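Friendly challenge for the regulars: who can give me the structure tokens for this chain first? No prize, just bragging rights.
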Amino acid sequence: MEKGKKAVWSYRLTWGQEKRRWVGGVVFPFLIAAIGMALASLPGLDHLGPLACAILLAVLYRHVFGYPVALRSGIQFVSKYLLRLAIVLFGLKLNIAVLLQHGWGLVFRDLAIVVFAIFTMVWIGKMVNVSPSLSLLLGIGTGVCGAAAIAAVSPILQSDDEDTALSIGMIALVGTVFSIGYTLIRPLLPLSSLQYGAWSGMSLHEIAHVALAGAPAGQEALALALLAKLGRVLWLAPLSFVLMYWKKTKANCHDGRKTKVPFPWFLLGFIVMSLFGSYVLGNAISVSPGVLSFLSFVTSLFLTAAMVGLGLNVDLRTWGRNGWRPLAAMCLVSFCLSLLSLFFV
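First reply, four minutes later:
Bragging rights claimed.
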């Protein structure tokens, strides 16, 4: 009887310890995310953005202190499930109604940009010996919408966390450099303000990068830049379903039997939230700007915390040995994408 009581007490103690560790693992990425978001508000670092600042902090923590193994279960929950929730909420940023009002021409030009970025990155990556998984993630991030696109497709492609975090970090770095470069060369380009805005929106990586590059050209140019960028975001869901079909077909051919690829249910949530934000919020349902700002903040916070969870998987020593090839390939693809976009404006 005494042994039974001790066993129950030991189980309760162990379960309590696991629960505390799980909570700690959830809180830890949010803590680093909050620090990263605070750093991103400082002069100089504001160009880098909260996602990049948070990922760099996570990578630095891993390099100095190692991976916090005791908190693994909570960190994995954040990087997997809260990431998917953030993608669903990200759908509110895509206003389909406004986008379609400007015609299908912009939408299909954005499709050409997405296809070019993906295929060119995969081709160049193969030439310089970059892994197919990392090349594909970089191509999708460059062509569609940066970290959000990578986060959305990585579960479909079953990419490992290190490739996902590396691709997001490289997107943030190269996108920041290019967006600052755009603002410097803008006076030298034979483009009107609106043409410059369209060029920025069709060629830069993240929405934040587009906002950074487009703002100096004026409000109308910035609005057109963001619209052009949203045209690329529109292709995220169709692209994800194409990748799911491709992954399933590839697995079936390789194994000789039917393979079940996990269905990305969170993408249905992304589509529903896009439709809800486009046609219900502000129309059927009146919402104050404060509520929309809060939802945008929560989306950014969840996405940043999830990126921290992924960033903790990055080993700088591995990146130091192998990181220059994908980084160089991505810079070349980004440059080619900028040239192609000039022809479209």
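Residues 7-11 have pLDDT under 50 and may be disordered. The chain has one domain: 2-344. Your move, everyone else.
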